Amino acid sequence: MLLLLFHIGNNLCAIDTSKIVEILPMVILRRIQLDRNSVVGVFNYRGRMIPVVDLCHLISDQPSQICYRTRIILVQSTSAARPIGLIAARVTETLKISIEDAETAEFITESPELGKLLLTEQGMVQLIHWEHLVSDVLAALPNEAKEGEECKTRLNSF
């Protein structure tokens, strides 16, 4: 299993790389006003509007510190048509762990967002289940296929 490492405050965290589309440098986001404060903005990614959430804010209720190593991790959920961006601070490296290491790691919380705590050469690494964290955002995203059909219908009515 390959993990992408980042920090939330001083804590080392990781997400599984299997659903990562691309890791992008931090870009200027178009701020949007939503009832939920989990979406910090959107950006244009190859002609698609991508919502962005801040992992640090979702987990610790503090915004990520924007610095040189802050990245937008573009991930594809199985439950959404469009990718979503995750802001993560101090994204520096990956870590390959064996399935046995993942199985021997321990849960320290019953929260579905926080996975097992791994002991590695880098120290303790908290696995993060990002899909649980952003499930409300994913549920609120419009279906791109449906949006496209509505646009075609409107254009054909002229």
From TrEMBL:
The residue ranges of the CheW-like domain are 1-139
Could you name the Gene Ontology cellular component terms for this entry? Answer: cytosol
Looking up InterPro entries in the UniProt record yields: CheW, CheW-like_dom_sf, CheW-lke_dom
* Superkingdom of origin: Bacteria
Please list every transmembrane segment annotated in the UniProt record, as residue ranges.
Answer: none
Cross-referenced Pfam families, in alphabetical order? CheW (PF01584)
What organism is listed for this UniProt entry? Leptolyngbya boryana NIES-2135
Name of the protein this chain belongs to: CheW-like domain-containing protein
A biological-process GO annotation: chemotaxis
Coiled-coil residues: none
